[in-house]
Design brief:
Chain A: GO terms for molecular function: ATP binding; ATP hydrolysis activity; branched-chain amino acid transmembrane transporter activity. The structure holds two protein chains of two kinds. In chain A, the strands form two sheets. Chain A has a six-stranded mixed sheet with strand order 6-7-8-3-9-10, with helices on both faces. In chain A, strand 1 and strand 2 form a beta hairpin. In chain A, helix 3 packs parallel to helix 6. Chain A is of the alpha/beta class. Chain A has a domain of 162 residues: Rossmann fold (3-Layer(aba) Sandwich), CATH 3.40.50.300. In chain B, helix 1 packs antiparallel against helix 8 and helix 3 packs antiparallel against helix 8. Chain B has eleven helices and four strands, in the order ααααβββααααβααα. In chain B, 49% of the residues are buried. By secondary structure, chain B is mainly α. Chain B starts with a helix and ends in a 14-residue tail after the last helix. In chain B, the strands form two sheets. A two-stranded antiparallel sheet of chain B has the order 1-4. Chain B has a single domain, classed as ABC transporter involved in vitamin B12 uptake, BtuC, CATH 1.10.3470. Classes of the chains: A alpha/beta, B mainly alpha. Chains A and B meet through helix 2 and helix 3 of A and helix 6 and helix 7 of B.
Amino acid sequence: MLKVKNLNVSYGAIHAIHDVSLEVNEGEIVSLIGANGAGKTTTLSTITGLKKAASGEVTLDGQNLLAMPAPKIVGLGLAHVPEGRRIFAEMTVAENLEMGAYTRRERAEVQQSIEDVYGRFPRLKERYRQVAGTLSGGEQQMLAIGRALMSRPKILLMDEPSMGLSPLLVKEIFAIIGEVNASGVTVLLVEQNAKMALSIANRAYVLETGRVVMEGDAKELMGNSEIKKAYLGA
Amino acid sequence: MNVFMTQTLNGLGLGSIYALIALGYSMVYGIVKLINFAHGDIIMVGGYVVLLMMVTMGLPLWMAVIGSVLFCALAGVLIERIAYRRLLNHGAPRISLLITAIGVSIFLQNLFQLIFGSDAKSVPQMFAFPPIAIGSLQIASSTIINIVVSVLMMIGLHLLVNKSRMGKAMRATSEDAGAAMLMGINTNHTVAFTFAVGSALAAVGAVLYCNTYPQLKPVMGNLLGLKAFVAAVLGGIGSIPGAMLGGYILGVAESWTKSYISSNLTDAVVFGILIVVLLLKPTGLLGKNVKEKV
């Protein structure tokens, strides 16, 4: 479904991503793990068009994403829950969800999608008129996920959904990711929390200083001694 | 008491013009963090377009007003497209944008000097109503028109920004342009639309100004624009109600200074207020505290 081939990305003179290739198949959860600064966020931002690539290929169902401006990409069925959530803090919960459906025109169906999100996240329904900046961290993450789902994506890119959340909330968010995937949405997940990321994923890639150093079945990677030492703290 | 009431109303009338212009500064700043110094000159452009359409082309007033509003909206979009967009999309430093804005301002002033000459042109009477008497109070019709029109514009703008799809996209873009793009919002369109609305409001301000002070000069945008900018900062730049409030406060302060202190001191008082507000509340009266992202 999503294919990244020999991607290179630079920030000025700094070559941040070296020949990264990865693939996400329909229905999968694929995790991209790695330390801070490994290039996980840069990879996602390049896929969604927020960052320009120096060279390489990114395709979604065969369509070239690199030639496309970011606002067009959402319409193809690829949604991105960015790092740090980036909800619209001064807009209400309901307005944030509406923005998520910006590419969709049919009002009644959008309203139905909003109800679906409220069904999945009852806490958002309770707070729908509240300004999003007043939500707790966990609620904001739920809103960011709900907002991304409003575009009815085929594939959801999630960047550090566990960041800044308590262990209990991290569990809740990962349960939600599992549910979203079970409802038919393919997921590409970027996480520093390697243990959680590997436990939920089908397959995973390990990034180190901008290069893919390992890839494979998530369960196998979890048993790998190098991964254990470097990322699982055991 | 009568003098006080009259001067206050006059001040609100003048403040309405400042407010309409201040909205443009504030909206543009809110969305692209640019102090668009060419905004003041849009008032001048709006004034000359009205004059041209009314006198030279002999069109009726309502057509001249609509023509001026449309022309200014288009001018705002063109200025954004030609002068600012490349800088904005390539992350140019703010100082480059600011200097570009000053350049656009100088360009517009000289262009209009070239076309219309540098001396003042008088504008024929636009809205002719007799003054309105409430008790012993005489209120000039222009004062009432200014206040009513500015309040209507404010309500319209409030509805646009809070209820319409484009307005919500504007708010989303001003908060986080990157996140807005991830939602599928074409931020280039949103920014262009903001310039169009801001410039259209300035054109309305220009019509009111010409009706109140029937004179045009190519450099009139300098002081008028600067004062409206002060109003925007006073109210809290980026805040729409703040721009309105700042405009009214400034107008009233100017009017009171004229009648109770000295008309020579009005500008000193206006900029004095700015200094005091910046010292006491740097974000303006209704401004939010901005957290800088590290």
